[in-house]
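Help!! Second protein's tokens look totally different from the first
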Amino acid sequence: MKVKSILVSQPKPEAEKSPYFDLAKKYNLKIDFRPFIQVEAISAKEFRQTRISIPDHTAVIFTSRTAIDHFFRIANELRVTIPNTMKYFCVSESTAFYLQKYIVYRKRKIFYGNRRFEELMDIINKHEGEKFLLPVSDIHKQEATTLLEKNNINFSKAVLYRTVSSDLSDLSNVDYDILVFFSPSGIKSLSQNFPNFKQNDTVIASFGPTTAQAVADEGFRLDISAPMPKAPSMTMALEQFIKKANKAAKK
């Protein structure tokens, strides 16, 4: 089967240059982008029911830009003034810089790691006297909470937003050669939006072990898995598969 079309279950890249655009041009592919999941805010009323008080904390841990947006959103809705003494611990430098949207960056105590939570943990351990707040989605990786608990860090986990399936009713079907997924929630959305979906010759690609497991749990066949030693990115994994498939189709 020659690969002609791909549906990526994420928003279309905003930058003019993207490995996906290069892939489409190189192999004359139709690549569409459509988020299969979306973020839904937890209301101020719901948050109050958790009895978590933001002012009781002296530091916040951010693992994503979405977490930053919803932390300041809920603070605004609750009319909570974030003190200038609040410390911010971010999983990466780019996440830390995103704080400039809400605070005067140079006047705050901001710390960041190098994309891996284990590295941020080394910094957090040097501030063990703080009381940390960890904003998360209802569906989140357990790595952060596991490491914080293992290191006896005083923290509260605050669910500020939830991940839900997007409404894809405007799509009559998902008739593409390859479907690309990046989270278990995306796989769940596929099943919810298209309950009669039969995989047949459709190739399913997934990124990360939890997404791969979700593919199996839903009873689908996993054809492309990333990251792999020879394909650390999804686009590299896709290209390797396309090369092989298109070569076989010519025979």
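Here's the second one for comparison:
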Amino acid sequence: MLDEILEHNRKFVAEHRYKPFETSKYPDRKIAILTCMDTRLTLMLPEALGLKNGEVKMIKNAGGIVFSPYDTTVRSLLIAMLELGVEEIMVIGHTDCGVCGMHPDQIRAHLIARGIAPETLERIDRDAGIDLDAWFTGFCDEEQAVLDTVSLLRCHPLMPRDVIIHGLIIDTDTGALRVLKKGTPCD
């Protein structure tokens, strides 16, 4: 697969097909979107929101949520605001999310089936200061996961009070958006 991608890339560059994508590192609409890495959203989400290249910062992870106030997702959002001019955050979950209902026992079983020794998992649990069960636990409700993430971001001690944070759900079948929480600047 890599060889096919590299061949396509050579043609892409040689034919100057990158020209329509030229933009700066600063998002034109001053928005950061936190969403899920779900493949159905790759093209649908920007199209459903009417977004073009260069208009937003798009941050994706499994579930499109934040579990910990000091994880790399929060770091990315803070950098987007403090260094790249973002003034608004949209947390966009989606229907039929694979993280909804995810269980750590299943993830552990998948890891073992892929050759990770049970002792390695035990050592990480014991010595690395990481609770793998918590780390691999999904959520039970997509809407509540979005609202929890919005709340965590809004209450974060490093989050500037003037940043507007919204929570939405996108339907992966139709692209319809539903607003769960319309943000406003805080005092």
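Reply: Different proteins will give different token patterns, so don't panic. The CA atoms of residues 104 and 135 lie 8 Å apart.
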